[in-house]
Design brief:
The chain has 16 helices and 23 strands. It has 468 residues and is of the alpha/beta class. It has three domains: 93 residues, Rossmann fold; 208 residues, UDP-N-acetylmuramoyl-L-alanine:D-glutamate ligase, CATH 3.40.1190.10; 144 residues, Mur ligase, C-terminal domain (Protein-Tyrosine Phosphatase, Chain A, Alpha-Beta Complex), CATH 3.90.190. The longest helix is centred in the C-terminal third of the chain and has 21 residues. It is globular.
């Protein structure tokens, strides 16, 4: 099959491209402002990549395409899409193509939730791999154990990160309604994606659409502490349900719990202790719950708890999830994908539990559509309360970030110039500090700029000392 993918450089669509190529399809694609690393990854796979959406592609690189796979970044008015419509050429969404050509007939394990999808899906894929099940997977990040975000595989199992974002301009349902999983993790649910959903109730409706697709022999692994998910299930459920949560909250009920020391319990009976890789500890309560959900889901695929615990002891994390980017003169620079206030707060809390009384300097970019719209402005200051200092990059935002962060007083500063922000952080940072960068984008390469500036400061101090 000859496939041309519109919006190929996104993590999801790039994963579709890699899987299609591995399955033997002839793949090409296009996107706007093409840049590494995705452009490099696609080129390595032998995928022809066009910069932009010029309709001339239909008479060039995409001339013989059997189908056009449309990413949700493409909207009406896009010149290539308009030409496809005018010529009545065949097109499908990415989730549709994945369902029909990859997921059909397989044991699909889908990981849904506002937070933790990528990490939990990566944990689950690694557990299945460690158990010898050789799963295929499509994950919205790069698990360190695999080095790639997507893999075709011919095995019976497939792990997919089940995103609630819309499918395409012609299908406004959430992506996950297409996956038809046998096992579905519902990790948590709160308001997000303000550019698509008017309120939390609208997202709950989409989650119930997902619940409706799970067969009677399927299983839902549900966060028992989440009120929104309880409302979703109350609307109707036709599958087996296993709930998970913290032992100190859930007690010793019939579901899965994890104690503060990492002990896993099912129905109150202990099944071992969750321990992380020494060089890649997964910080925070939220990651213990992510691990617990992955263990429960893997058990539905036939993997015993002991096998799952052994796998997670070797789990090396996911790129851009509390990733240490470097350490200069005792100052550590971490990178994390957190962008929603809840994720920001739990990320800071996880780091705090690891570093104790050491100072945390939070560097945050409100870049997601929800944050850019100001839908979470009133929660931003509270989410950053656990950091000693906050530096917020607020270029081109249409709301008053300084006012939103006013409750933090002098502990917070707002910048619309990235170099000025970097200079301010470096002036403040001292040995033992942890600089925590949080954004769902590239953030202008701020991590490298911080490390370079810290190195330059060190050289300047050394030179001054040497000169007496």
């Amino acid at each position: 099959m000859r496939i041309h993918i519109l919006g190929i450089c996104g993590t999801f669509m790039g994963g579709i491209a890699a899987i299609a190529r591995a399955a033997g399809h002839d793949v090409s694609g296009c996107d706007a402002n093409v840049y590494p690393p995705m452009s490099t990854q696609l080129a390595t796979l032998g995928i022809a990549l066009t910069d932009g959406y010029d309709a001339a592609q239909l008479d060039g690189v995409a001339r013989d395409a059997d189908v056009f796979v449309i990413g949700n970044v493409v909207s009406r008015g896009n010149p290539l899409m308009e030409a496809i419509l005018d010529r009545r050429l065949p097109y499908v969404s990415g989730p549709e193509w994945l369902r029909d050509h990859v997921l059909a007939g397989r044991f699909v394990l889908a990981v849904a939730g506002t937070h933790g999808k990528t990490t939990t899906a990566a944990m689950l894929a690694w557990i299945l791999e460690h158990a010898g099940l050789s799963p295929g997977f499509l994950i919205g990040g790069v698990p360190e154990n695999f080095g790639v975000s997507a893999r075709a595989s011919t095995g019976a199992y497939f792990v997919v990160e089940a995103d609630e974002y819309d499918t395409a301009f012609f299908d406004k349902r959430s992506k996950f309604v297409h996956y038809r999983p046998t096992t579905a993790i519902l990790n948590n649910l709160e308001y997000d994606h303000a550019d698509i959903f008017p309120d939390l109730a609208a997202i709950e409706t989409q989650f119930h659409h997902l619940v409706r697709t799970v067969p009677r022999l399927g299983r839902l692994i549900v966060n028992g502490e989440d009120a929104a998910l309880a409302r979703v299930l109350a609307r109707g459920c036709w599958s087996e349900v296993e709930r998970f949560g913290r032992a100190e909250v859930a007690g010793t009920g019939p579901g899965w719990t994890i104690a503060v020391d990492g002990t896993i319990l099912l129905g109150g009976a202990p099944h071992g202790v969750l321990r992380w890789h020494a060089d890649a500890p997964q910080l925070g309560v939220h990651n213990r719950l992510n691990g617990l959900a992955a263990i429960a889901a893997a058990r539905h695929a036939g993997v015993q708890v002991a096998q799952s615990l052994a796998a997670l002891a070797g789990f090396r994390g996911v790129e851009r999830r509390m990733q240490l980017r470097g350490r200069v003169a005792g100052v550590s620079v971490h990178d994390d994908f957190a962008h929603h206030p809840t994720a920001i707060a739990t990320t800071i809390d996880g780091l705090r539990r690891a570093v104790g009384s050491a100072r945390i300097l939070a560097v945050v970019e409100p870049r997601s559509n929800t944050m850019r719209l100001g839908a979470m402005a009133d929660r931003l200051a509270g989410s950053l309360e656990g950091a000693e200092r906050t530096y917020c990059y607020a270029a081109n935002l249409g709301w008053d970030v300084a006012a939103a962060l006013a409750p933090l007083g002098t502990r917070a500063s707002v910048h619309d110039d990235l170099d000025v922000l970097v200079s301010a952080v470096v002036r403040e940072a001292r040995a033992g500090d942890h600089v925590l960068v949080m954004s769902n984008g590239g953030f202008g390469g701020v991590h490298g700029k911080l490390l370079a500036a810290l190195q330059a400061r060190g050289r300047a101090v050394s030179a001054k000392t040497a000169s007496g």
